[in-house]
Amino acid sequence: AINAGLLLRSFLALTDVPLGFRQDHILVTYAHAPARGSIFEQSGIENYLRAGQELDDVVGRLKHVPGVLADAAVMGLPTGQYSAEGSYEVEGKDSSGGNFHRLPHAGYRLSGQGYFATMGIRLLRGRDFRDGDLYGRTPVAIISESVAHQSFANEDPIGHRVRWGLDLPVQWATIVGVVSDIRQDSPASALEAQLYMPLRQHPYTANEVQIVIRTDRDPESLIPAVRDTVRSVNPEIATKFTTMDASIGDSIAAPRFRMILVSIFASIALLLAAAGMYAVMSYATAQRLPEFAVRLALGADFGGIAGLVLRGAAYLIVIGVAAGLVLAFVTNRVIASMLFGIHTTDIVTYAAVLLAVLPAVLLAAAIPALRATRVDPITALRAD
Q1: pTM summary value
Q2: How far is CA 316 from the centre of its chain?
Q3: CB 3.0-4.6 Å disulfide test: which of 10, 88, 116, 187 passes with 339?
Q4: What is the dihedral of CA 330, 336, 341, 342, to 10 degrees?
Q5: Which ranges of 126-252 does DSSP label H, i.e. alpha helix?
Q6: DSSP annotation string for 238-251
Q7: Average pLDDT for consecutive 10-residue bins of the chain (384 residues)?
């Protein structure tokens, strides 16, 4: 029961942790615009540029759909299906000594104009991506707070250049903005360093995107209108829909399953404990009925008789609680890695579980105690 309480408290902490972005009223559309050809050939790049322009057209048209407050495209949505990460280098700040593994590390994301505002990710410094941040123009990037802290300390990162291994050939990109950190993989993940690049400057990896749509109504109610809008641009663009709430829910499906499963077993154990207490105390009370009859005949009151039964129950409860605490301390090491935001010795959880278990066990013991107070002394003595 204590382990179940720890998992429950951990899950509640997961659902309440700040994510760094908004999740409510967000419809997510996975959109894949077909593009063929090699990125090393001009014809292939042109196909990818065309696919990217189609997705830009979709984003633009969706702004006019009733109920849409804002929308933007991204490759690498938090808790989504796509993710990339790796090392990066800051121009003039390479202290790796040629060792690739000593370079700083960050996640790679491609985002369209307006993505940060749509998702509620705070722009702390500089600017967002613009219409002019296109393929063939000066490469730009936006970094997260963690990148700014780990690579620039107290220095202003705006205007500095970074490069990473996402592109071939590798290019230097000028930092134009800094945004707040987010929990990228799930609510359980740490606030991670992120490098954001403009979708339109990386067309050969941005023909398959997630379009985030912020709305003032049920997000799923927009699916028919969004699907029609996508088909009006190109019927061959494949789509799949979900919501930000559902995506985050999927990311914590394993903790939820563990919490539910252990809670079920804990509930069964509590029922068995209450049933066992009732059976033991009923048997013990039945064995002492003649004693209780004599005590009643000699003037004992009902409270005294009930107290005798409950004192015996209290002895068993103390033994059971002590054994349970010892087992909890031994077994909660197994679930230590599954907990978020709390420790295996969380006092609040231990106290809450005891307050939940003790009344049930005491009630099971109180029924035989009440029965003992109603014994007829004459009938009990004659039966003995």
Answers
A1: 0.76
A2: 40
A3: 10
A4: 0
A5: 145-152, 223-233, 244-251
A6: EEEEEEHHHHHHHH
A7: 79 84 94 76 80 93 94 92 85 67 86 94 95 91 94 90 78 94 88 92 86 94 95 94 92 85 81 79 71 66 70 76 76 74 78 79 76 61 54
